[in-house]
Amino acid sequence: MAHKKKVVVTGFEPFGEHAVNSSWVAVQELERLGLGEDVDLHVCEIPVEYQAVQNLLPSLWREQQPQLVVHVGVSGLATTVTLEQCGHNKGYKRLDNCSFCPASQCCMENGPDCIKSVLDMDAVCKRVNESDIGIAVSVSKDAGRYLCDYTYYSSLYLGQGHSAFVHVPPLGKPYSSQDLGRGLHAVIQEMLQLLEQDHTVEEHLHNEHCNHSH
């Protein structure tokens, strides 16, 4: 029997004007849909607190050992399901739900300024938009220098790029929770397919290399 793929998907708790955080609502909707028989899906809600993220993410990667972690956050500016290509290390001045921000205003002392996902978000975006699920998807390179960006950077660092971040609009602007759940489902399926392809190519190259050594 094929080994199940482990995927962790997170949403955030309410903060600021977001009394209901559509990211967590969307993730719960995704959990109801599931990602199919061969995917073991684990979901969790992340506090909008820098220190909680620092404590939670390492244990999440260590205990779950996922092939992919997808973080979902709400953006009041978003009107599409937005795929973030990279996370940033510096510029964290906004106070969190505990009125705290890192003294260094950065995520990781001496870490690279920007870490990119191993996933090609343009490719994921194109595929989902071509599938015509009635939910628009776009790509962004700026996750906003708040807890979304902070979480994404930390996760990319811990998971060697095997992480993704998806920004969703607030509920009803324009999508319902069901729409957002379907959107996440489509996006994550494409991400897993891309990872699978890359893995197959790597194995193929590795085998070619091995065959030559005899």
TrEMBL record:
Its EC number is 3.4.19.3. It is found in: Cytoplasm. GO terms for cellular component: cytosol. One of its GO terms (biological process) is proteolysis. Keywords: Cytoplasm, Hydrolase, Protease, Thiol protease. It is an enzyme of class 3 (hydrolase). It comes from the Eukaryota. SUPFAM superfamilies: Pyrrolidone carboxyl peptidase (pyroglutamate aminopeptidase). It catalyses: Release of an N-terminal pyroglutamyl group from a polypeptide, the second amino acid generally not being Pro. The active site is at residue 148. Its main location: cytoplasm. InterPro entries: Peptidase_C15 (IPR000816), Peptidase_C15-like (IPR016125), Peptidase_C15-like_sf (IPR036440), PGPEP1_Cys_AS (IPR033694). GO terms for molecular function: pyroglutamyl-peptidase activity. Pfam families: Peptidase_C15 (PF01470). Monomer. Removes 5-oxoproline from various penultimate amino acid residues except L-proline. Belongs to the peptidase C15 family. This is Pyroglutamyl-peptidase I. The gene is LOC103361119.
